[in-house]
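Annex B. Sample input.
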Amino acid sequence: MQIIKADIMGYCMGVRRAVESAEKAIQDFPHKNIFTLGPLIHNQNALDMLEAKGVKVLSIKDDIFSHKIDENSVVIVRAHGVAPKVIKILEKTGCKIINATCPRVLSNQKRAADFAKRKFIVIIAGDKNHGEVTGLEGFVKEFCSHCYVIENIKDAQMLSEQIEKNHSLQTENIVLLSQTTISSTEYESIGNVLKEKFPKIQILNTICPATTERQNSLKQLCTEVDGIVVIGGKSSANTCRLFSMATEFSKNSDFRCKIACHIENPSELPKEFFNLEIVGLTAGASTPDEVIKSVENLLSGN
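Annex B, continued. Sample output.
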């Protein structure tokens, strides 16, 4: 069996930075209680390793309002970022805050807030319940109430009709931005739908280049292999998108790849992959290098 890895795969800059922040906090604050605000990354293997070192996960909705956090606590804000009101709540507890928000997400938060200050209608394309999106939404709502989150073309069409019917809204001032890990094709389609109704809409390029590079690398890989193994957390938005793309490619006669699977660890690898001539590997932005290596070793018999 031949194994080919995607040119771009695994930890992105933002996730690696967040994990390194947690590792440094463990060393710098050995006598404090260390928490991450929500799961640091969407990968259970990595979370288990941090938990073994004493790092606990806080619920954004519940735990920050309880008495779990105090002056003896260190709270790490994950790469997805959080809304300003969450930071304000944390500051009142007296805890040490380590902001590990991805620099690209920080930039998008600032841009969203700037448009909100100018009273634009702000539309965010992404997963409604994703931490990055709720954080962006929070930055917008600090300054204006006209913030809408849409997930797909259907949502875009419905929102267009909703805005058109509301004659009090200034449709000359609309801006669209996205979750950093959305599919570029999906984002373009959403933008086209909105532009039909609102020609003056500003469409910002807020997708992380690493996301696009990872998706393009997968597309190329699917022309070279018989099957694709997508490695990463089942709750990881960018990993799920990679698997969705691989599945679509496997149904397309233009691609050699005819089967795809999504696994979190080597034990989940389907038996049929061991019978393939050439297997491709890719991984989401939250997948540790050692997990990728363990899958590769299992396939190669090492």
